[in-house]
Predict the 3D structure of the following.
Amino acid sequence: DLQEKLEGVFRGLSGKGKLSEENMTEGLREIRRALLSADVEVGVAKAFVARVREKAMGAEVLKSLTPGQQLVKIVHEELVTLLGGQAEALRLEGTPPAGVLVMGLQGSGKTTFSAKLALHLKSKGRRPLLVACDLQRPAAIEQLEVLGREVEVPVYARRDTKDPVEVVQGAKSHAREILSDVLIVDTAGRLQIDEELMAELEAVREALDPSERLLVLDAMTGQEAVSIAKTFSERGEITGSVLTKLDGDARGGAALSLVEVTGKPIKFAGVGEGVGDLDVFHPDRIAGRILG
Amino acid sequence: LRREVYLTDEFLEEVEEILIAADVGVDASVELAESLRRRLKQEKAQADLAEVTRVLREDVAAMLGGEEAEPELGGPPHVILMVGVNGVGKTTSIAKLARFHKDRGRKVLLAAADTFRAAAVEQLVSWADRVGVDVVRQGMGSDPAAVAFDALAAARARGHDVVIVDTAGRLQNKEGLMRELEKIARVCGRQVDGAPHETILCLDANTGQNGITQAKEFSAVVPIDAILLSKLDGTAKGGVVVAIARSLQLPVRYVGTGEGVDDFALFSPREFAEGLFQ
Ligand SMILES: Nc1nc2c(ncn2[C@@H]2O[C@H](COP(=O)(O)OP(=O)(O)OP(=O)(O)O)[C@@H](O)[C@H]2O)c(=O)[nH]1
Ligand SMILES: Nc1nc2c(ncn2[C@@H]2O[C@H](COP(=O)(O)OP(=O)(O)OP(=O)(O)O)[C@@H](O)[C@H]2O)c(=O)[nH]1
Ligand SMILES: [Mg+2]
Ligand SMILES: [Mg+2]
């Protein structure tokens, strides 16, 4: 693992003093390698390692730690600060009903997350309404309706239109009728490079005017995390993201790319297929995973 | 106009970076860059850029299996088992495969053996309707192996040429779910000799290095015959299949290029390798 590799690099240095330019270069190379194998994007890894170098250069090697451990400690701290620094709760404000827009690539876990969030908000005393705005995938509406029944949250669905903006408008009036105070809008998966669908997303966002706009990303996402996050962040004006399938064994380097590129916090972690499998995001846990 | 490059460490690092950025992974990228250095430095310390990219493309393509090879059918019925982690495109790809075989005059039957996820059966039934093929299904929560068994029995009785079994998405670190998959495959073999004849691992092109673990762990419970690389219409290059080919020798046979039933093709290693360097 990374610690052992760094021990190898710094053997013979323990107790003697500063990390030097030479052993630092080799140590940083190992760190870069570890980040890349954990799926951190190339550019993000470079920038991150540069910051670690700055922190580490001239750092007094703690008497109780070996240089390898010291470097891992710096890396770990830097990761946790980056991943958790901006942490903030869900923002549900503005004229009721508040809106949460759920977006992302195909298959990332949006529909499942929407139901999880509904259950979570219900337990916090809110009255959510799930809104089925995926009008494209076969049985998408059915999927949300089944989940809605499971979490005992109403689902607003329309089978008479292919326009998600219409659905949002209908959902808003329906929410006022049944006194729901938060709309959770599930949308169709889309490629960030699909101009037509990204324009549709913007239209849905404008119609909903959500105070919370979440990007849902699969924890096993590789190098494209940057391109995906960047485009969705800009076009969707995201306020935060959700990292799903963290119950798997993916290292999750996409988390670093995600936060680095969007500057927005990861608010939730999907940790299973069940509607209860939703966690608040723990930066220290994902830092440990990324470092392997 | 020849662009000459010196095979310096800097240049080789650049090559590595292009490969890493395509999700080929550190180890495989370093190895490819090394092999490039060995192959070209034998003749000269410099080469023209076109030659360098050609060598790289050849090396990558050589790792990835045959060019657009049509699958050989087993049975009848030829039994296809579709497996993979959650959300990668298994169900949608089954619709595409059904269409592929139907177009070749084969009688296709689908088995809705994802009896777990909300509206999974409805999703497959909807696709079966669209493509115009039959589907065997049971109630939600029924034993997936039982659905597969019934479907294979029906296929034999009704003379289907191809059966495609859909399974629930499952993460490879979930032991119980992996055992369930093993059982589904075993039960297929009891109903039809040699089944499943084609176990396809569906892999999302956006997947990073975890794709290697997926291939490794799924292979440990059911022999994987081929990979279907989905969502290649996105920006992801799907380079993890190179790392998989290098360590597990699993071929890629099919690609998914969109959400429609025709967004499907046989895998071309040559085209794929070219895509890596674009
Ligand atoms: N293990 C695990 N599976 C998950 C998690 N979140 C979602 N899934 C599964 O991932 C698959 C895809 O989830 P969906 O909710 O349908 O994804 P989606 O983003 O709505 O998909 P599209 O609407 O097609 O874009 C399903 O099998 C879910 O059960 C998670 O946190 N852990
Ligand atoms: N852009 C694109 N989307 C795809 C492709 N293949 C599948 N999808 C989409 O990915 C999402 C998930 O597809 P599914 O077929 O439900 O995936 P699955 O593996 O069966 O999911 P689970 O059964 O929940 O594990 C859907 O929105 C599909 O339309 C592809 O090649 N390109
Ligand atoms: Mg969905
Ligand atoms: Mg499916």
